[in-house]
Amino acid sequence: MTRVLHLNMSSPAGGASIGALRLYRALLNAGEESLFIGAFREQTGDATMRLPDKLSLTERLLEKVTWHLGLSYIHAFRTASRLLRDPWFQKADIVHLHNLHGGPFSYLALPALARAKPLVWTMHDMWAITGHCGFSHGCDRWRSGCGECPFLEIYPCAARDATRWEWYLKHRSISRARPVFAAPSRWLCRLTAEAFPGPVHCIPYSIDTAVFPPIPPLVARQELGLPADRMLLLSAASHLGDARKGGHLLAEALRKLPDALLQRTAFVSLGEGSGAWLDELRSRSVPVYTLGFISDTRQLARVYSAADLLLFPSMYDNLPIVVLESLACGTPFLAFSIGGMPDLNATPGSGGLVPPYDVPLYANRLREMIESWKSVPAGRQSLLPPGSHTGDEARAYSAVYQEAISQFKGAAA
Questions:
Q1: Among candidate residues 79, 131, 89, 81, the one with its CA nearest the CA of residue 3
Q2: DSSP state of 225
Q3: Is the CATH code 3.40.50.2000 the one for domain 217-372?
Q4: Which end of the chain has fewer CB atoms < 10 Å from its terminal CB, N or C?
């Protein structure tokens, strides 16, 4: 049995945190002793989870200085000393890093932690390889050390352009720590290997098909109070107004469709906030059902199963868990061929990909799908691609843990 300590600093609502939490639980089910430090303890009450330690007064004061300098997270200078004294850290055989941005963790602590424990790091986004951002939005300056950043406002935002310094400090710390890297998509595996030369394990997120089963669509619609005489289109994101999720592109595509065609549809949205496409639909008297953020997985499975098509116009993404959940429930998607999306198009009927940001083609594909819709199907089959089923991810990581432990012992010998 391997004792695994997971560290995750990002918001519980994001896909990275959901993926980390589900892996932690899958490892528990597989017999591994799995502990978790992250932003879930208050929600679950799980005794094997806890919130990250709070920053000291000195660190909080220092944060005001480093923020104005454009440097993120290095104010948490006691990260290493806190963890090295932590009973959970001391007990662990391996430390599994997830998203380290968004909470009280300094990447400068990584070399000290790596001297004490073997590290595995799952790249849920691009933050570790850039000068500040989680996704570079098409900018390639991270390949040459950043600087003159055109996107300081992108999460996690920066007050001023110190991206060259942050890129240097981050890469120096990570290169010295030499964690074993993994990523859910082939796209992010390639980028990680480019930034930190060496093997990167490509391990997709797994979806528990007992939790996200295909429910008969008519049954799901009846339970949710959704119409049975229209094609049901679904949009989903943790924050619907996030420009990265491409809501403005979807609104542009919808404007290319005639009113008569849209009157054959109804829309459902999952997530906080609103988006431009919802206003566009309401202005054209198309029924819109805004369900907000849903954490109950059974209810999510109903929503996915009720829908005929998931519209996912994201501009930059890794391997979106929402699309995997939709596929598990048998609902196909329409998306741009960006990031890790091509990995999800392996199952016949799983969906359609169009070239990045080709809004006219996206609109034409959507038009064709609406025109060909006849009625709500009686049932569906799971459309998950290979490697994304229950247990696949936990088994793959168990093997990676043994590799990392062996490398750590060999380096110490």
A1: 89
A2: T
A3: yes
A4: C
